[in-house]
Design goal:
Layout lengths: L1 H22 L4 H20 L2 H9 L10 H16 L2 H25 L12 H15 L5 H16 L8 H14 L3
Helix pairs in contact: 1-4, 1-5, 2-3, 2-4, 4-5, 4-8, 5-6, 5-7, 5-8, 6-7, 7-8
């Protein structure tokens, strides 16, 4: 149940960021302010107010690097995408992050049986669900061909073996955006 709640929070926060970024209501300095606010909330929670700390821990993975890591990296990945890419590419990259990552994790966690040979932590059905969700999300901003590329790159980034410090919330939008930049 915790994974469902965690991914629900990921999708809600990501959707709010996506709507703001895609419509131009949020720009890079707003995302930077949100990132700083998240960091301050985490620090405050652990120094002054234990109730907030338990709420943050409730939505974190069991072995999170620091409390609030998922939210911090989601905002950071969105901020970097907004800074590095044109709005349409940044929007597609953030959409793929939010929906492909969320679908892959949820479907893989609850229905996945067959593990990928190159990453035993990921499942075939989760990867397929993430690919489909990522394609549909990217297709809101791009034609179907670049949306396929975006989704494929996102799932390669999602399923790659990574060092502990390189979070999907950073890697997926950056890899997706970079790939889209190089398309004709």
């Amino acid at each position: 149940m915790k994974e469902l709640e965690r991914q629900g929070a990921h999708v809600i926060l990501g959707t709010l960021i996506l709507i703001g970024q895609a419509t131009g209501l949020l720009c890079w300095h707003d995302l930077l302010a949100l990132l700083i606010l998240c960091a301050v909330a985490v620090l405050y929670a652990y120094t002054a107010f234990g109730g907030l700390a338990s709420l943050i821990e409730h939505f974190d993975r069991e072995h999170a690097i620091i409390p609030g890591w998922g939210a911090l990296t989601l905002v950071a990945g969105s901020l970097l995408s907004t800074l590095l890419f044109p709005r349409i590419i940044a929007s597609a990259a953030i959409a793929v992050l939010v929906y492909a990552d969320g679908a892959a994790t949820l479907i893989g966690h609850y229905a996945g049986k067959q593990r990928l040979w190159w990453n035993k932590d990921k499942t075939l059905i989760g990867t397929a669900a993430g690919f489909l969700a990522g394609f549909l999300a990217a297709n809101l901003f791009l034609s179907w061909q670049p949306a396929l590329v975006a989704s494929g790159v996102a799932m390669l980034a999602e399923t790659a073996q990574k060092p502990w410090w390189l979070d999907d919330n950073l890697l997926i939008p950056l890899a997706t955006g970079a790939a889209l930049l190089f398309l004709p």
